[in-house]
Structure prediction request, 260 residues.
Amino acid sequence: MNILDKIVKDKRVEVDLRKGLIPISQLETSVLFDRHSNSLAHTLRTSSTGIIAEHKRRSPSKSVINHDLNVQDVAKGYDQAGVCGMSVLTDGKYFGGSLDDLLLARASVKMPLLRKEFIIDEYQILEAKAYGADVILLIAAILTTSEIKTFSELAKSLRLDVLLEVHNEEELQKSIMPSLDMLGINNRNLKTFEVSLETSKKLSKIIPDDFVKVSESGISNIEAIKELRPFGYQGFLIGENFMKTEDPGASATTFINALN
Ligand SMILES: O=P(O)(O)OC[C@@H](O)[C@@H](O)c1c[nH]c2ccccc12
Prediction:
């Protein structure tokens, strides 16, 4: 079993437990459920930098990245740096995150927040809304075409943006549909952890222009961004490069200043 299969197997158990404890009717009464969300796709379309900065304490590929920070400090730092949005990992077992991280980030900043999660059930989309997300991630490698359709349409009905992540042409072909806002090309293969910017370059050619293109993972310098822009990318998702430093916000500021 590869790591992605393991994560999904654990996730199904976790989601069933959550559902048993907190009914959907309770999620819908959250004060955040009626909050007007901010569109990340719109922000990226009008931005000159396109940086989406991630909060990630650890990962299966790198183990510990940073366990010493408060998510609210990281969020405020990223906000001051002028990033377009923040991605908050909410998976606990493999990434050391939680829905509380999302809630605390929401309480700290107004910018678009992405719930970075392995979504396999509609329930998690309602949770995303209830905990203050503006955007959800859907990972094509773990979903069927019909799930992508149902999940993205539910997200749209809640006024959440949808970032659909793919790693190869087959995943892209099975996923393209009008209920998506952004297409994310993951430079990291989630099954083998191999990282290559070539993945973004190669797949850019077959992404229709209606979607905002986001390049994800393994971006560690501004040269990578300059290399990817000519391929039509308007969004760049960066985690470890910022999170491995003592002050991710300051690192994002330096990075963005160098880009301008
Ligand atoms: O830390 P990096 O290499 O900059 O990558 C960030 C982000 O792209 C990565 O965390 C990610 C992309 N897709 C995912 C899906 C699940 C968990 C994590 C991810």
